[in-house]
Records
---
Amino acid sequence: MDAVTTYETIGATYSHTRRPDPRIAAQIHAALGDAATVINVGAGSGSYEPPHTLLAVELSPTMIVQRPAGSPPALQASAECLPIADNSADAAMALLTVHHWTDLDAGIRELRRIARHRIVILTWDQNVNRKFWLLEEYLPEAAAFDEHRAVTIDRLTQLLGGARVETVPVPHDCVDGFGAAYWRRPEAYLNPELRAGMSHLALLGDEALHAGLARLSDDLTAGRWAERHADLLERDTLDVGYRLLIADLS
């Protein structure tokens, strides 16, 4: 399933379930540094775009129509073939999108072509994320699905020509409902509307997840989850594998 088909299928709830978290936004905006103009590639519904965003690029019409009023203009196009001139902005950013691209090498080349000074990518480290309790204990099917689409940090760093990597800690009350956002609120994973905003769960479908979610529900009711993960209830943030890659271009 390609990116546009994916988000025509699962993207309808994004404006409700995938609102930008201000703490993650601050880290992304800091990573953009002093860039005066930014192009957001794989922009979705526009989360985390800084005020100086020049243009958004998104393939899915369903995502584009959810962009808030007053958002920067959005161009319907793929990351692999951007109808944008060379060196069009100080920075390009691509947030939780590279795993959907059909040709990663081409997409990164395009980011390097349109950005003058910096590229910022938000992704996840599968080596860390696969150990997240939801995947390890209840939904190994989702972990296996991500094994096939996750892009390694090393590969991205190589394609970018070098990058520094920052851990993005997830707050316990994160308002952006991505895959591991509810690490301290496990009951949220029983909510089908919230799951619809998590591509690895939504694409697998409820039938494939039924047994694992039933076990999670039973463990929550019996108090087993709280016993097993009492340490999480004391934490304010958690490293679940999300990473920012920041590449300065020569």
---
Amino acid sequence: MQKMSDADLMRLVMQKHRPALEELYDRYIKLVYSFALKSTKDEQQAKGIVQAVFTRLWTTEKGYDESKGQFVNWLLTITRNITVDHLRQEKRNQLVVPVEPKRWEQIAGHSADNPADIVSRKLVREQVEKAYRYLSPSQVELIRSLYWEGYSLSEIARMRNEPIGTIKSRLHQTLKVLRNHLVPEMEG
């Protein structure tokens, strides 16, 4: 197996020949890991990306086409795409999701009978309602579509027939407005 080309090994991988995948893993583990580590700066995340890359090799239906370039470039493209997806997901998980005032009562963990929870929810709802006043109808609709209806930014752009850059810019401005009006109110 060690004398086989990357393309030959990938053809065997497409036929679910495990030793071929193991050989590709041995050849490229350091490259894939170092790329992922440099991008994430976290060893555990980099290991997860390595696993995802080689799982993708094992499960891909398209495979590698040697007429389109070198195997290593194809592999690094897969690694980059998986890393970008991972970083985007990580960023999404860290975003503060604005909650519509009417939905505060539906958040789990709040007891309807506890007076402190009732007062706390009421105060937070009032602050969110105040912050929403600073948003345009278009911004409110964007928040609703993105956070409550679950549409992606590209889906929202298609629905509104606007460039995705415009949607991203509007979201950035919207979150900035909410942050500016929620944080001082809640801290005070």
---
Amino acid sequence: MTASALAGELGVPLFTIQLDGLITRYLGETAAKLRLIFEAIQQTRAVYFFDEFDALGSERATRNEVGEIRRVLNSFLQFLEQDDSDSIVVAATNHPQILDRALFRRFDSVIEYGLPSPDISEQVMRARLALLDTSQVNWRDVLDAGKGLSHSDLTRSCEQAAKNAILQRHTRIDNDELVEALRERRAAHR
């Protein structure tokens, strides 16, 4: 969401780099693909978003890390160091503790999003459901079910409840369906 907001505010495109398509089992191929991405970064002003970055940026000293990924990370660090473009590179992870420390020195800013407070959680969900009828929602139950979930998880749960309402051909959010969507999100993280 941050990368999308940056791109929107700057009026530039947002490109998401899917690491599962970038990382291959063939020696040197991943670094070659990475080089192509950084060439695009030089040529096209945009926001380039690397999601689930821990797949690429995990600590190089980790015992069970394979040599190819260490080489790819070294390449990434060099490309980032040499980048003088007007593009913005954004990387996101849910596991910052396993990232290589050198990455933190290469990025201009590190933003950590903590879990939302109950007040923020309610604001996020009300905003996401603003076009629908939430008059039957018991916000106390919903907030209890959403406790400890991220902004993204809250948003996705609201989207699920909204889809259910639309599929049932109405615009009223069902309290139980929203609570169930939040519980399903929580269960997915276990």
